[in-house]
Design a protein that fits this description.
- With 356 residues, the protein is α+β, with helices and mostly antiparallel strands.
- The protein has 2 domains: 93 residues, Phosphorylase Kinase, domain 1 (2-Layer Sandwich), CATH 3.30.200; 239 residues, Aminoglycoside phosphotransferase (APH), C-terminal lobe (Aminoglycoside 3'-phosphotransferase, Chain: A, domain 2), CATH 3.90.1200.
- The protein contains 12 helices and 9 strands.
- The strands form 3 sheets. Strands 1-2-3-5-4 form a 5-stranded antiparallel β-sheet, sandwiched between helices.
- Helix 4 runs parallel beside helix 9 and helix 6 packs across helix 10.
- The chain is globular and about 65 Å long.
Length: 356
Amino acid sequence: MPASGPVIAITPIAWADDERRRRFDAWLASIVAPHRLDPSSLQPASSDASFRRYLRIAAAAGTTFVIMDAPPPHEDVRPFVRIARRFAAGGLNVPRIVEADEAAGFLLLGDLGTHLYLDALREATAHGDSRGVDVLMRDAIAALVRWQRWGDPQLPPYDDALLRRELGLFPEWCAGREHAVTWSEGEQAVWAGICDLLVRSALAQPTVAVHRDWMPRNLMVCDPNPGILDFQDAVQGPITYDIACLLRDAFVSWDEEREIDWAARYWEQARKAGLPVGEDFGEFWRALEWMGLQRHLKVLGIFCRLKHRDHKPAYSRDLPRFYAYAHKTASRYAALRPLLKLLEPLMGTSRLEAFY
């Protein structure tokens, strides 16, 4: 527990648990004076698909901080703290750890602002500003190369078990729960074969530090650009994972010409930086697409789980985008085409054109 001090009532913030609210009030009271915080300014900043949420609080001289509320045992802030400190030392723009009560799951963080990459990309696209989009994406690519170069030997491995556990979300939550589909033995065999191919491709790749959600919703427009968020689940894994994340995002899509251009720019920068991407861009692109398919199937499962288990239905609006990604990749490679027999009944064959 933090040092004792006067209890501060934070009325605008809802708490499901009175004990957690009391613990938060005591922790906040202990750090108000050292950082000249204004408790009356506390307000929600954002939440995500986990149990974490973020609050913003003002301080003297017009500065602001962000508070992470990550309740144990659902969340563990220690990986976030360790990774943030390591990558900050590598020159990446991650939130500064100002105060940390790791046992309680409360962090006071430097504020990277409110301008999400996702919003900036949408704004630039809406105004026909292709150059603005390109500048943002190039900054994200350059930062990714720095992230991968810096690395972290303590990151857990993105191993066979984790890859398969993620893939298992698709039949359980998307096919089974969202669509009430039960696969025959033959269909289950097709699925098992696809999983084997995707896992084998992922594990054959050189490994680097993998953010696991290097996407516009976790990047901020700031100086230096971009600010990087939500990296507590980082692992040591396939080198194509994060660039696949960036190019085939959950909330914004690009034409393939742009995807290939940005992928090639990443590949060139990675080679110059000494990262193990290989000399054949065609092979790199194939590995990226297969890695992306593993992620897309996982996300289809996650979004359906958020809807049915966690009562967060908004994510399911983007299921069509992930069906489109998965269908396009499976159609392109002969070894993956059997997956279409599992995807198309869920998508609705009469509506396939709407996904492209």
